[in-house]
């Protein structure tokens, strides 16, 4: 089974989840935490690899926008839940707008399901 057998939307979702992991993990990267730093680096590489898989069959603009949107929404959510960052009404509305954009891009991408 090669990369072509992987559903591009699944690959893109996985790339987005991995982006959340590495972006959120940046708070703990440093020479005093080599294993966490390695894990963040591996998550980053895997995220880019799955993004590459997705872009082989999806429009690059759609794939990249969805990937960054998943990462932005996920990292903001982790920041609110795990790091105590503010969850103001305006911030939450902006997160919802990003999610709406992600859904819209998926629905109207013209790419195979």
From TrEMBL:
<dbReference type="Pfam" id="PF00893">
    <property type="entry name" value="Multi_Drug_Res"/>
</dbReference>
<feature type="transmembrane region" description="Helical">
    <location>
        <begin position="35"/>
        <end position="54"/>
    </location>
</feature>
<keyword id="KW-0472">Membrane</keyword>
<feature type="transmembrane region" description="Helical">
    <location>
        <begin position="61"/>
        <end position="83"/>
    </location>
</feature>
<feature type="transmembrane region" description="Helical">
    <location>
        <begin position="9"/>
        <end position="29"/>
    </location>
</feature>
<dbReference type="InterPro" id="IPR037185">
    <property type="entry name" value="EmrE-like"/>
</dbReference>
<keyword id="KW-1003">Cell membrane</keyword>
<keyword id="KW-0812">Transmembrane</keyword>
<keyword id="KW-1133">Transmembrane helix</keyword>
<dbReference type="InterPro" id="IPR000390">
    <property type="entry name" value="Small_drug/metabolite_transptr"/>
</dbReference>
<protein>
    <recommendedName>
        <fullName>Guanidinium exporter</fullName>
    </recommendedName>
</protein>
<dbReference type="InterPro" id="IPR045324">
    <property type="entry name" value="Small_multidrug_res"/>
</dbReference>
<comment type="similarity">
    <text>Belongs to the drug/metabolite transporter (DMT) superfamily. Small multidrug resistance (SMR) (TC 2.A.7.1) family. Gdx/SugE subfamily.</text>
</comment>
<keyword id="KW-0813">Transport</keyword>
<feature type="transmembrane region" description="Helical">
    <location>
        <begin position="89"/>
        <end position="108"/>
    </location>
</feature>
